[in-house]
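Q: Make up one entry.
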Amino acid sequence: MFSFLTKNRNDIIYLSLLLFCIGVGPRYRALKTVQAKKWAGSILGLLLIIIVSGYSALHPILSAFMGIIAIKAATVRYCHVVTFFLMFGYLFFFRLADKFGFPLSSGQTNLIEMIIVLRVVGVAFEINGSWLAVAKAKKDENKEKKEEKVKDDDFLEIINPDFQDLFHYSFNYIGLLTGPYYRYRTFDDYFRLPYSKYVDCFGFTINTMRMVPLYVSLYLALSNIWPLEYILTEDHNNRNFVYRMLYPWALFSAFRQRIYSGMTLAESVCTSAGFGAYPVQGKNRTGHGPTVGYLKLKQMSDEEAENCQYDFNTVESMDVWGCETVVTLRDSMKVWNKAVQYWVAMVVYKRFPIKPLKIHAALFVSVIWHGYHAGYFFCIYFCPFYVMAEDIYYKLYYKDATGQKKKILGFIMWFLRSHSESYQAAAFLLLTFDRIWIYYSSVYHYWYGVWLAFLILGIVLNKLHRSKRPRKINDEIETKQEVVSN
């Protein structure tokens, strides 16, 4: 028992702090004034950083202040670019601190630094994006009136927080330990709009947390039966090929349970404080918040708010059921860590100026945000190669299939998707190139060969399908002509 506690000391402390934050939520929500809430949230956030990081707390605190100063010092036109390179530059320094004579920080401090980067860079892009969007809207006022939009634009109002608001947004305890990421607009709405007073925070929190004991139990069981380090041993290499091939399934299953536990508890921190609650009619999306009728929602009276139905979709990070059941890797990426996916899409993919390189820019930023180890590149940057082949088979065989045929094809695609993710996750967990090479060599790097064969075969089958299509269309036309003539 003692050895278990010693081995998992940091995880136990982190778990305890998340549970503490959940317990604090109702008291935090009950604070009367906006200023009291903001300062209490920021002070608690700073205390959490110090408890988790010790002397290394200097890194997230210093980097956040540097980013805030950059936002306020630079012009609105360039503040997002300056802040992006400053924060990611500091992130590199933070992770390579030992090269400069400083001690390396713990993995938990690394998680906090990652969240700080998302928040500070994200708000800089919000400021710049809101000014661009509002300026464009003013120009469009002089043109012919367009039809009313079903969906809101990304930015409807100017976002221009002062230094103090940026400080509170950066250090508020909600989401600081392990996410989720949320926009500054969501943070500001929490203090200005009445939703947190009327949403059933206790009910949502209990409903969100109910599966956590199962996730934790599965993680402990799987990680003890199939430990990561065993994959590098000679004993593992002497096992039969099928065992070596399927071992990453156990590793990735344990990893998923750990992520599910952390993300679910992080969402519960939000729900217990009423943070991220919006009326369901806003059709709320992870990271973004309301996507329909946001300005009308802001004008809602207390009486209307009291009778509303709410959700916490804005702060939902993981669709656990989706992660386990979706058929394709493309869909799997959409339901995994959705808040960070939203940040990458809004900050990188949509704003990158060179269209053909958008996806590469998004993947590259995702990789360097996770870290500089080879495992992150092997895991994240190889996804598009599998998706290229997957898309071909999806369109050719699965998309229009029905009944039993669709179920069988769906299971095959699910198995291949899950196997691909497990193979990539092995690299993500092993991290360094030499460790990855040991495992991939033990299975002869077979999955990359399978990917390539799938892709080549898919291209050939797709060309054959296209070549048959015009002939089929001509046959149908001739048949119709014969029917008409008769």
